[in-house]
Amino acid sequence: MKSAQTEYLRPAGVEDVPALLALRTEAEEWLRGKGTDQWSDPETGERAITKWRASIDEGRAWVVIGERNEVLATVSRGPVDRDFWNDADHPESALYLYKLIVSREASGRQLGSRIIDWMSRLAALEGRQWVRIDTWRTNSGLHAFYERLGFEHVRTEEPSHRRSGWLAQRPAGVISLPHKLLPVGVPHGHSDSTISISSLPHQRETQASEDTVN
Length: 214
Hints:
By secondary structure, this protein is an alpha+beta fold. Helix content is 27%, strand content 21%.
């Protein structure tokens, strides 16, 4: 009999940076093996890592922890990216999901779907209408993954200085795996046994230009 899954979410801390960078490196190598040029530009990667550290400092980055206390996945939320979403999109109506990476070790556990479900619940609790993403324009496999999870392609933007721009959204509150919800664990140095999802940081409405890891 398989043991119960024990993965849980918690806020990322500075001590997680090496593990997060290892996740990124592993994902880069895997993507190269799949024949996609995503993250092939070293300058883009450096900018993304800098913004990643800022997300940790601002409490917007999260990690999924496994039974051996290892980092299995990460996700961040962030401000609307004005290279892609405009006023006609009603940017305040959405939660913006960035930097979703799952380790190859955790492949098959549906962590990507479960993380998106968690973000969907959070978006609904904040009264938002959508969970939105932008992904690498040429990564058709990733587009298909998100579409299988209920995201609908909105349009593709092609600013000359960006390689991302495939825009999609899913209604807030939609749950793909209701029987596999990820619990939220205790951040380091916190004395409580649980974290209320309603106490988590809300979306900032300022402009951003994210190098996404989607």
